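REVIEWER CHECKLIST
Item 1: Sequence provided? yes
Item 2: Single chain? yes
Item 3: Sequence as submitted:
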Amino acid sequence: MKQKTNLTPLQIWTILGGAAVMLSLAMGMRQSFGLLQPHMIQDIGITAADFSLAIALQNIVWGATQPFVGIMADKYGTRPVALGGVLIYILGLLFLRLADATWMVTIGMGFCVGIALSCTASNIAMNITARTVSATKRGGAMGAVSAIGSLGLTLASPMTQSLITNANWQTAVVGFLALACVMLPAAFLGSKADRIEHEVVIGKQQSATDAITEALGHKGYRVLAIAFFVCGLQLVFITTHLPAYLDICGMDPTVGSTTLALVGLFNVIGSYLFGWLGDRYSKRFLLGGIYLLRSLALFMFFSFPPTPFTTVLFGAVLGTLWLGVVPLVSGLIIHLFGLRFMATLSGVAFMSHQAGSFLGAWGGGYIFNHLGNYDLAWQLAVAIGIAAGIFQMTMNTQPSERICNQLATNS
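Item 4: Structure as written out by the authors:
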């Protein structure tokens, strides 16, 4: 085991780089699935609701398993969790590649990828980062890893559209399989954070159950988790249904893929920016501001017929506000409860996020199937986004009584 202070810059960057690449590819592929939707509907005969349900299941499985994956990571380390998650991701993509019926899409893209994301995406990557760097640099480091993690969409989206255009959607899934194989060495390198000693805890040692009970009893944590619901709803609604919406409006398919790529590119700026700002200003107000600005962007885009310019502009604005929430939420959880059970408590909060993701994916498809348009879906996303932004700004950021006592003892 090593102390953080004994790590060389090369060791730190190797660990953070592995975590960032793992996160980047896991999220890049996941956020590009929407590009497959029109072609799978035509070739397999599934409906928009079937595809939306598979994405919705992916998100609810991701959320439901995240607390348990977090407990495993806190107890056994991130290496078995991350490597196992990559293998499950590959299995899910194999199901998708061979899919000729709805149930195969549901198992592959829904169930398997949902579990894999619990093991390879933001929660585990932020856990690795927080344990690798010092507290004074934590916000910026989490923002940087999240930023690099955003580049996966910039790679995966145009790659997917190119393979679909020049071959077919099955070939695009083969491209996903190649990216998933790259995740294996990245997960191995990132999980070297397991060798770093845990921070010393003064007083009674907590169990995971104690930590969850403490968090659920904290009003600020409950507000954080409820507002996080809206984050998931808005983002997954966009990644799942924007390509189909643009197709309905008669836009060239490359506009949708370019927009998603811009989301990833500008996410690099936004993630690092909000991580950096979180070390200097109120995290709760920054989070609330993100929710409000996202809602404004949704309102402005969907209120008028889309053009190529307004669509790519929308992608740039939304990308800046995309994963900037990750370092802020992680930082708030560490501030409230400490680092020891960060993965567990982030996982519990993430359940709320993924419940929103389920509603954003499935609800958008359901509304479209019944009304023939997405008007009600985006209007609801705007309304609850505004409510969540205001709600988030009221969050109680007083650390838990245990942390306050520990800080008093240390001083």
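Item 5: Key structural point noted by reviewer: The first helix runs from residue 9 to 30.
Item 6: Recommendation: ____
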